[in-house]
Amino acid sequence: MIELKNKEIPSLALAYLGDSVYEVYIREYLLSKGICHVNDLQKEATNFVSAKNQTKFLNSLVDNNILTEAEITIVTRARNQKSNHKPKNTDIITYKYSTGFEALIGYLYINNKERLEEIINIILKED
Question: Which of helix, strand or coil describes residue 48?
Answer without folding.
Answer: helix
